[in-house]
Design a protein that fits this description.
two-stranded parallel sheet, globular, 4 strands, alpha+beta, 31% helix, single chain
């Protein structure tokens, strides 16, 4: 889940899915506060945002997938669900993609 405020990640965690929710955020305070929720693994994205939103989202997803593979949360050929928004900022979450781990 790519999140600015953490609201999307907390809404997902509310339903207690059987898998871990990785919440990628560019805000340190949001990453710290997401540690308080069950099933959420916050990931702080320390890089500057790209001017092109679509390229930026792909960068965030690649970063999360690399960390997920490194920490053994993801395995090869596993499918992950990525929840994002169609534009930057809070309140625009409306896109769900199913992506295979490579």
């Amino acid at each position: 889940c790519l999140t600015t405020t953490g609201k999307s990640a907390t809404m997902i965690a509310k339903y207690r899915p059987s898998c871990v929710t990785l919440a990628v955020t560019g805000d340190r305070q949001t990453a710290r506060s997401l540690h308080l929720y069950r099933g959420i693994l916050p990931i702080y994205f320390p890089y500057h945002r790209d001017a092109d939103w679509r390229k930026d989202v792909d960068k965030w997803i690649e970063y999360a997938m690399a960390l997920g593979k490194k920490s053994n949360v993801f395995r090869e050929n596993q499918l992950i669900v990525c929840i994002t928004g169609y534009r930057p900022g809070a309140g625009y979450t409306n896109t769900m993609r199913v992506i295979p781990v490579e």
